[in-house]
Amino acid sequence: MTDKQEFEAKFWKSIRADMTVMVGIAGVDPRPMTAQFDGERKTIYFFTAKDTEIAEKLTGAKKATLVYAAKKHDLFATIHGTIRIDNDRNTIDRLWNRFVAAWFEKGKDDPKLCLLRFDPADAQIWLDASSLVAGVKMFLGLGDPKQDYADSVAKVSLK
């Protein structure tokens, strides 16, 4: 059985590699956004424009949900936390890259630039338990598929 620390480690490794998540807050349909990471901190940042629906609705910290699916479909997660606007210039400088720059004509000084900060609280993480061994076990009627499923899901604290 995989322990919660292993689930968390796999989650952070995967999301840092793939970076695309669906971000949703109350009253705004979830939308795909590219996650940015500041070193090993657990905070997740997103660059957006001030005139987007999500930025316009963030008048303070709000509950948010991120939904993540790894490109290889070997890990899935629903992450709950709070999101707010955090236009800290030092953070923007650290996270700035050519991919972000492509969206903002005036660079870091673009008046539309808006940095969102997501502080995760907890996550439900699913690991893909399918494998050749799992397939053979199921074919032969060995093991308990419900237990195998239970062993591939965990709720973890991300604080």
Q: In angstroms, what is the radius of gyration?
A: 18 Å
User: CATH fold name, please?
Assistant: Pnp Oxidase, Chain A
Number of domains: 1
Number of helices: 6
What does this structure look like?
The relative contact order is 0.20. The protein has one domain (4-157): Pnp Oxidase, Chain A (Roll). The chain has helices at residues 4-18, 53-57, 89-95, 98-101, 132-140, 145-150, and strands at 20-25, 28-34, 36-37, 44-49, 62-69, 75-85, 113-127, 153-157. Strands 1, 2, 3, 4, 5, 6, 7 and 8 form an eight-stranded antiparallel β-sheet that branches. The chain is α+β, with helices and mostly antiparallel strands and 159 residues long. The chain contains six helices and eight strands, in the order H-E-E-E-E-H-E-E-H-H-E-H-H-E.
Characterize this entry briefly.
The chain has one domain (4-157): Pnp Oxidase, Chain A (Roll), CATH 2.30.110.
Describe how the helices and strands are arranged:
Blueprint lengths: L3 H15 L1 E6 L2 E7 L1 E2 L6 E6 L3 H5 L4 E8 L5 E11 L3 H7 L2 H4 L11 E15 L4 H9 L4 H6 L2 E5 L2
What structural keywords apply?
159 residues, alpha+beta, Pnp Oxidase, Chain A, 8-stranded antiparallel beta sheet, 8 strands
